């Protein structure tokens, strides 16, 4: 039971911290998205890759560091202390490119891995559709074989970063006459090609970080297929499993930030607030320490399982609750989101508006609880009326 | 970083689990539940004494196994799983830890071996009425080695042979070791919502008592340190109970059928059990951190112990009541074990200060850290 670094870990941490200090400013509040964020992200990715700090667990042959998952964890912890523009590459390097590495040909790996790693190309993941979110296997976008190509028609939704992505991995239906999970195939898609139409979605929180993506007679060569036709669901599960291995930082203000605000505003003498602060601390520690337990399992060569689903269930609701309380503590003034007026650079107001999306994206609270119940506790699956019937029957 | 118990500690856990599953069954617990005159299950107690577990965290020079706090935490969780109806916690978590923390060398040599071999059973006697314990709520007084006052309730007060008693001394407080089998001590069994454990009102009238340690007036600060240690150990006991509640509820949800299929296929049940799982994991992670802080005497111990206790109390409370709920009508019968966990959850949540008290301790610790 040891929460301190081993000598090797401490050495690596110091090395990581020194490198980061050389290149970045310490983080104050949320990472800065101003300036030319995309270019800064690309530049930072290049610097990391050149110094073997990008994708620490990837083999050296493909440009990684050949390091341990614990080193990746340590790197992530240190990087999160700095104002690091990592957003645009998280999905590509965390989910898409590992899928290409797992299922792509040697030509694919030669063509795509280095460019992604060095920040030259950005990837997005195209799974969800208007009729297929929680039930993503119910997706409708079709791919029909035509000579050596497949012709894609349909639509994806909630595609983060599609507006600046160069490539993507797209899950499509190649056989509608078998049960839905069996008729899917994964492809690499060139996001800049003709027929691909990216339209931003206006989020409830005000921004437009994700998109609708329409496909009109888009041609993808069969050579860009990842895995056999009909194997798409299995490929998608690998993509989603990699998502679980990605260790992210806190999505917004936590107990420490609201405590800072409370100290400055005199609320630390409010008994009701103090009791809530204790609960928030316990939940945040619970989440953080559970991650450490998972990481210990990882470092011992065990594969983290569906237990990881508990992370987002805790943090998304926690964030919403903290931001809600912070706004109410400010009373009427709490509605102001102008950074010149709002305390703490309006982080509570910003995250208050972002929090509802967090409880839905990447697995809704309800789906995550289903996953815990079914895959961790072994309880029966929900009744699925369409389970073994051909997709075309519905 | 290695946030897990060692292979040896896991082996101890597995052996303890097998042992207790065989030696401390539901029937052993119910023997105490159904007999008002029984303060504990002595058959189970003697077997536990023989295992040497009481001395897990007592140094070998004082007759213990000389293992450590981590091993004691592992044992605590296993005892919690089976609702062991014995005074283990009172003697090993509170009484022994008080001696270890504040006793003179002579006192350690006198008492620790006896805790370890079960020849004495210790308990902690602090509260005197409803509400959170504070220095001003203590009326019991010690003067020139004589103790007078009343302590109520004293967990395991019926079965204990000795008590560590918080009393006024001069202008402050002190902790006094008292032999309970003497003329100046009278005990009355209390009826409680947790009949598988003994509780007594203890009156001290001219009882002879020896102050723990040599420093005077420091009872509350010694108690604070004892409570931090006890909080972590109790958290493991609570975690054991909460884990069993989730196991019971899950098993029942798979077996019980309604509307043509297991009730566990319904989201209301699935989500309820997922919620229990999440709270249990939050409790487990905080308890592990507490165990680390305890075993390394870390500066983080105050907030780690408080977070462990708050998380474990919430988890066991939630798991125990939702376990009853999942069992439906059967969960509300005497014969099904759900209510035993519900009762024990409440005892453990208030025995060493309620969650509200510990939330305040947690925030004070955070303030102290931030101020630095």
Total discrete domains of chain B: 3
Which structural class do you get from the secondary structure elements of chain A?
Answer: alpha+beta
Helix content of chain B: 40-55%
How many structural domains does the protein architecture of chain A include?
3
CATH class of the largest domain in chain B: Mainly Alpha
Radius of gyration of chain A: 22 Å
Q: Note poorly predicted spans of chain B.
A: none
Shape of chain B: globular
What percentage of the residues of chain B does DSSP assign to strands (E)? Answer: 5-15%
Please give the oligomerization state of what you see. heterodimer
- Gyration radius of chain B, rounded: 20 Å
Major beta sheet, strand line-up of chain A: 1-4-5-8
Assigned CATH architecture of the largest domain in chain A: Up-down Bundle
Number of strands of chain B: 9
- The CATH superfamily of the largest domain in chain A bears the name Butyryl-CoA Dehydrogenase, subunit A, domain 3
Descriptive key words:
A: 394 residues, Butyryl-Coa Dehydrogenase, subunit A, domain 1, Butyryl-CoA Dehydrogenase, subunit A, domain 2, Butyryl-CoA Dehydrogenase, subunit A, domain 3, 3 domains, 4-stranded antiparallel beta sheet, 8 strands, 14% strand, globular, B: Butyryl-Coa Dehydrogenase, subunit A, domain 1, 11 helices
What would you note in describing this structure?
The complex is a heterodimer of chains A (394) and B (372). Chain A has 394 residues and is an alpha+beta fold. Chain A folds into 3 domains: 7-85, Butyryl-Coa Dehydrogenase, subunit A, domain 1 (Orthogonal Bundle), CATH 1.10.540.10; 123-242, Butyryl-CoA Dehydrogenase, subunit A, domain 2; 250-376, Butyryl-CoA Dehydrogenase, subunit A, domain 3. Chain A is 43% helix and 14% strand. Chain A has helices spanning 7-23, 37-50, 69-79, 87-103, 106-117, 232-245, 255-265, 271-299, 309-329, 347-358, 365-376, and strands at 123-126, 142-146, 149-160, 167-173, 184-190, 196-200, 210-221, 225-226. In chain A, the strands form 2 sheets. In chain A, strands 1-4-5-8 form a 4-stranded mixed beta sheet. Chain A has a 4-stranded antiparallel beta sheet with strand order 2-3-7-6, with no helix packed on it. In chain A, strand 2 and strand 3 form a beta hairpin. The longest helix of chain A is centred in the C-terminal third of the chain and has 29 residues, at 271-299. Chain B has 372 residues and is α+β, with helices and mostly antiparallel strands. Chain B folds into 3 domains: 7-116, Acyl-CoA dehydrogenase/oxidase, N-terminal domain (Butyryl-Coa Dehydrogenase, subunit A, domain 1, Orthogonal Bundle), CATH 1.10.540; 122-216, Butyryl-CoA Dehydrogenase, subunit A, domain 2 (Beta Barrel); 220-371, Butyryl-CoA Dehydrogenase, subunit A, domain 3, CATH 1.20.140.10. In chain B, strands 1, 2, 3, 4, 5, 6 and 7 form a 7-stranded mixed beta sheet that branches. Chain B has a two-stranded antiparallel sheet with strand order 8-9. In chain B, helix 1 (7-23) packs parallel to helix 4, helix 5 (88-102) runs antiparallel to helix 7 (219-255) and helix 7 (219-255) packs antiparallel against helix 10 (338-350). The radius of gyration of chain B is 20 Å and the shape is globular. The two termini of chain B are 26 Å apart. The chains are: A alpha+beta (394), B alpha+beta (372).
């Amino acid at each position: 039971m040891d929460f301190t670094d081993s000598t090797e870990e401490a050495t690596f941490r110091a090395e990581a911290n020194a490198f980061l200090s050389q290149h970045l400013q310490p983080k104050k509040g949320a990472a800065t998205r101003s300036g030319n964020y995309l270019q800064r992200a690309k530049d930072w990715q290049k610097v990391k890759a050149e110094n073997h700090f990008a994708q620490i667990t990837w083999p050296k042959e493909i440009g990684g560091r050949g390091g341990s998952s614990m080193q990746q964890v340590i790197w992530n912890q240190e990087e999160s202390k700095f104002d690091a523009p990592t957003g645009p590459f998280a999905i590509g390097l965390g989910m898409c490119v590992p899928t290409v590495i797992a299922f792509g040909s040697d030509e694919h790996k030669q063509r795509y891995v280095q460019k992604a790693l060095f920040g030259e190309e950005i990837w997005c993941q195209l799974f969800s559709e208007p009729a297929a979110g929680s039930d993503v296997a119910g997706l409708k976008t079709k791919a029909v074989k035509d000579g050596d190509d497949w012709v894609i028609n349909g639509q994806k939704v909630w595609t983060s970063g599609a507006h600046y992505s160069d490539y993507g991995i797209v899950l499509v239906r190649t056989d509608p006459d078998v049960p839905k999970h069996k008729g899917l195939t994964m492809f690499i898609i060139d996001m800049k090609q003709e027929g691909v139409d990216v339209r931003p979605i206006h989020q409830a929180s005000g921004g437009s970080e994700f998109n609708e993506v329409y496909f009109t007679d888009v041609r993808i060569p069969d050579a860009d297929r990842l895995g056999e036709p009909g194997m798409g669901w299995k490929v998608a599960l690998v993509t989603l499993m990699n998502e679980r291995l990605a260790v992210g930082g806190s999505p917004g203000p936590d107990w420490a930030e609201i405590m800072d605000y409370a100290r400055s505003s005199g609320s630390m003498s409010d008994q009701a607030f103090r009791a809530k602060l204790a609960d928030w601390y316990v939940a945040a520690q619970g989440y953080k320490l559970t991650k450490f337990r998972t990481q210990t399992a990882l470092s011992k060569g065990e594969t983290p399982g569906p237990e990881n689903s508990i992370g987002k269930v805790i943090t998304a609701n926690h964030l919403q609750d903290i931001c809600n309380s912070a706004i109410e503590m400010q009373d009427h003034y709490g509605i102001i989101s102008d950074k010149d007026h709002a305390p703490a650079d309006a982080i509570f107001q910003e995250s208050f508006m972002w929090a509802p999306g967090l409880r839905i994206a990447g697995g809704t609270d309800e789906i995550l609880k289903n996953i815990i119940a079914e895959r961790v506790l072994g309880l029966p699956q929900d009744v699925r009326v369409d389970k073994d019937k051909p997709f075309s029957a519905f | 970083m290695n946030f897990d118990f060692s292979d040896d500690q896991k082996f101890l856990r597995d052996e303890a689990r097998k042992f207790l599953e065989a030696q401390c069954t539901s029937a052993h617990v119910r023997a105490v539940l159904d007999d008002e005159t029984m303060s504990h299950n002595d058959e189970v107690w003697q077997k536990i004494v023989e295992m040497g577990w009481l001395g897990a965290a007592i140094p070998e020079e004082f007759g213990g196994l000389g293992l450590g706090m981590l091993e004691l935490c592992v044992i605590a969780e296993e005892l919690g799983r089976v609702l062991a109806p014995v005074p283990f916690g009172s003697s090993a978590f509170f009484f022994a830890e008080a001696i270890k923390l504040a006793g003179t060398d002579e006192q350690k040599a006198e008492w620790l071996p006896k805790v370890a071999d079960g020849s004495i059973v210790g308990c902690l006697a602090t509260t005197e009425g409803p509400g959170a314990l504070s220095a001003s709520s203590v009326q019991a007084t010690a003067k020139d080695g004589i103790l007078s006052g009343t302590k109520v309730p004293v967990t395991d007060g019926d079965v204990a042979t000795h008590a560590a008693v918080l009393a006024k001394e001069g202008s402050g407080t002190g902790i006094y070791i008292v032999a309970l089998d003497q003329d100046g001590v009278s005990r009355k069994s209390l009826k409680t919502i947790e009949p598988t454990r003994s509780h007594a009102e203890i009156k001290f009238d001219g009882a002879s008592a020896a102050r723990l340690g040599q420093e005077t007036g420091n009872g509350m600060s010694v108690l604070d340190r004892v409570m931090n240690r006890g909080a972590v150990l109790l958290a493991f006991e609570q975690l054991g109970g909460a884990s069993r509640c989730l196991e019971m509820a899950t098993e029942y949800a798979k077996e019980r059928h309604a509307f043509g299929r297991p009730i566990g296929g319904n989201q209301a049940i699935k989500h309820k059990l997922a919620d229990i799982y999440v709270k249990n994991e939050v409790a487990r992670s905080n308890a592990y951190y507490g165990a680390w802080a305890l075993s390394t005497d870390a500066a983080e111990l105050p907030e780690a112990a408080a977070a462990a206790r708050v998380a474990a109390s919430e988890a066991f409370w939630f798991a125990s009541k939702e376990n009853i709920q999942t069992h439906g009508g059967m969960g509300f019968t005497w014969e099904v074990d759900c209510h035993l966990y519900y009762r024990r959850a409440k005892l453990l949540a208030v025995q060493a200060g309620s969650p509200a008290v510990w939330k305040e301790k947690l925030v004070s610790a955070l303030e102290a850290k931030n101020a630095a």
